[in-house]
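Fill in residues.
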């Protein structure tokens, strides 16, 4: 989906843009199928090890991982993009519908920034330590300062409908204009220091499956508890102009588009570069605080 001038202006003025229908079901379905297979394999391993008693094989995508995590929370480990390294996810990083929109915010030379996650946010009753309830932060805080001048745009993709009830994103509009705000490592993770958090009314940004919340690297955002019985699945990717610091120099970056021409990521090299980088970067401090 290409952005129109009003949408680009809104992003430039507010520091975010929430849009439904950016991705088609055909963009997300292969990734869902790949994760369903991934979950099924792990569930069967846990069953064989007597760590769960019910596979919940017939449960839907937005229910099953929660039902499994309730029995054994380690099912949630190792599923992140660079850990599971599923070919379908490598495809999504280069999704034309997404890049068409990103081009309006980043320009025509586009690189996939290495900060990227898939999140299966379980119902709050399962998420006992609150890990998936992410406090106010700017994404600039989870990069090194070398990337402060890089226009990194976060694309928060709803993998199932994201609602206020299941813990969609909230943003502070316009605040990105203040630039980087000091963060600290509070109990819940890297967060803006309470004394510098501007008093701006938060805006909740629910989006349907395939919708995207685009955010500037300086837009304060958070997610709230999942008060439903289902899992809030999402994928957050970041894109930036090619050739500029990513803020995570120890992780691989991939050019995905140049002057409108796709720069195909080779799956095997993508997977290998991640494996090598993860092995070589143990102990590296990724967040700046
Ligand atoms: O998905 C969430 O709950 C938090 C995501 C987030 O903070 C981010 O993408 O930077």
């Amino acid at each position: 989906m290409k952005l129109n001038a009003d949408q680009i202006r809104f992003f430039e003025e507010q520091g975010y843009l929430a849009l439904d229908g950016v991705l088609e079901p055909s963009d997300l379905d292969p990734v869902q199928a790949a994760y369903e297979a991934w979950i099924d394999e792990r569930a069967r391993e846990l069953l064989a090890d007597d760590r769960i008693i019910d596979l919940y094989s017939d449960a839907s995508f937005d229910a099953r991982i929660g039902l499994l995590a309730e029995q054994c929370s380690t099912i949630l480990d190792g599923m992140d993009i660079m850990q599971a390294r599923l070919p379908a996810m490598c495809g999504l990083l280069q999704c034309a519908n997404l890049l068409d929109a990103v081009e309006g915010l980043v320009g025509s030379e586009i690189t996939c920034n290495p900060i990227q996650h898939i999140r299966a946010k379980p119902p709050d009753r399962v998420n006992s330590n609150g890990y998936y309830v992410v406090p106010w932060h700017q994404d600039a805080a989870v990069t090194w300062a070398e990337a402060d001048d890089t226009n990194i745009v976060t694309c928060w993709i709803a993998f199932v409908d994201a609602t206020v009830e299941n813990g969609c994103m909230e943003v502070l509009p316009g605040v990105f204009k203040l630039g980087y705000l000091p963060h600290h490592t509070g109990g819940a993770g890297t967060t803006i220091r309470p004394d510098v958090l501007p008093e701006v009314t938060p805006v909740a940004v629910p989006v349907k499956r395939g919708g995207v919340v685009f955010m500037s690297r300086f837009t304060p955002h958070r997610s709230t508890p999942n008060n439903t019985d289902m899992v809030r699945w999402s994928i957050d990717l970041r894109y930036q102009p090619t050739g500029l610091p990513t803020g995570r120099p120890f992780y691989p970056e991939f050019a995905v588009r140049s002057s409108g021409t796709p720069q195909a990521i080779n799956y095997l090299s993508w997977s290998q570069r991640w494996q090598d980088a993860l092995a070589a970067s143990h102990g590296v401090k990724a967040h700046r605080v």
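Residues 90 and 270 are 8 Å apart (CA to CA).
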